[in-house]
Amino acid sequence: MKPAVLQAAAEIGVDAPAPQGLGRVALIAGFLAYAAAAGAAWWLSVRLIPAELSLTILGKTLHTASVHDHLNNIFLVFLLLPTALWIECVVVGWQASSLRQLLFARTRSLNTDIAVFILGQGHVTDIIGRILMLGASMISGAWIHDAIATHTGVNLGPPPLPFALQLPLYFAVYSFFDYWTHRTDHTKFMWPLHRYHHSAEDFGVVTSGRQHPVTFTAIFLVNLPLAVLGAPASVMIYVNVLVVALGFLIHSKIESDWGWVGRWLVQSPNHHRAHHKLDMTRPTGHFGIAPIWDRLFGTWYEDKPDPKLAIGVDTPYSHGFFVPRDMLRDYVHFWMGWFGGQSDGPDSDPKLFRKR
After folding, report:
1. Which of 60, 166, 250, 292 is 20 to 30 A from 262, comparing alpha carbons?
2. How far is CA 243 from the centre of its chain?
3. How far apart are the two ends of the chain, measured CA to CA in Å?
4. Cβ–Cβ < 8 Å for 325, 121
């Protein structure tokens, strides 16, 4: 059976160039070799590394009993990006793939994607974000959940359902909060931060990670509500894996609306490209990773968007590997917007950030 993304593209008649250069057999063999190597590394790790570890630093002992859980999560994450690159390569062919562009034909916009992705994996952007959010990221939803339970006796924890039912349930809950987070990101006051993601001038799998470090909306409209509701970590890790995998695919070079799957279940690459459109004579839509929320709240615009739409923003960006300039400018724009300053558009740069 073909993967869903391949099946959908074939069934709805979307033009997807056949792989060229590297054959399908080579692509599949390469992916299977990587998966086998990653699996072997995971297998050895869980057998050679104990499940519990203690580490003493500066007289303080740190102890964890979940080493194997962390290893399992790392294994899942390190399979996601290669899997997305492989699926895209099989669908669009080597010549048009993100992997080939990453290796041999990088643009300045793609260089930004790579830099932000690497900084994110190294938790550098996480640290910067915590500083720039002035402590907002330290608010604990779990503490609020426990306080409600203590003072009211109401337990907002997960329902007594099997994992197979909890996973789609919490994906639906997550996608609802994420929809409103995304719509809030497109309001005047929050847009300068989210604009950093929309500044990409072309899609590639790693464009998914092109996010500004300051994420006020995600904290208050996704993380906190889910924590207050007692979303179990054992389920949310798989919801997060699913969301990250979808993020890679909808930012890929696959030109498909995924048929009824993309219209009702999960957002397709074509619909996400329509969301990123440069022409804003008509407000953007298609905010949800689950299209049902767009349909319910009036932001679903078209079933078959143009896969060749130009994307980007009209605010100038430097692009390239040196990302602090654009990130800092957007952070300044964010605060300028709250205090009545011009925070968007081709002539909005403060003097400090204008090119000479």
Report:
1. 166
2. 7
3. 57
4. no
Closest CA to 251 of 179, 201, 193: 201
d(CA 80, CA 72): 13
Please tell me the pTM assigned to this model.
0.83
**Overall residue count recorded for the chain in this entry:** 356
Two structure tokens written together for 87 = 């699926």
Say which amino acid occupies 299: T
- pLDDT tier for residue 144 given thresholds of 50, 70 and 90: confident
The answer to whether 347 and 333 are in contact (CB under 8 A) is no
CA dist 179 and 314 (Å) reads 24
Under DSSP, the state recorded for 57 is E
Pick from 179, 288, 156: which is nearest to 231 by CA? 156
232-237, Cβ contacts within 8 angstroms, sequence gap of 24 or more:
232/157, 232/158, 232/166, 232/170, 234/163, 235/158, 235/163, 235/166, 235/167, 235/170, 236/170, 236/174, 237/73, 237/76
Q: How far apart are CA 179 and CA 164, in angstroms?
A: 23
For the segment 223-267, what is each residue's pLDDT rounded down to a tens digit? 888 888 888 887 888 898 899 999 999 999 999 999 999 999 999
Instruction: Catalogue the E-assigned strands of 207-347.
Output: none
Closest C-alpha among 32, 8, 209, 34 to residue 91: 8
Helix-strand-coil split of the chain, %, nearest 5:
60, 5, 40
pLDDT-derived band of residue 14, with 50, 70 and 90 as boundaries? very low
- Pick from 8-17, 116-125, 223-232: least confident: 8-17
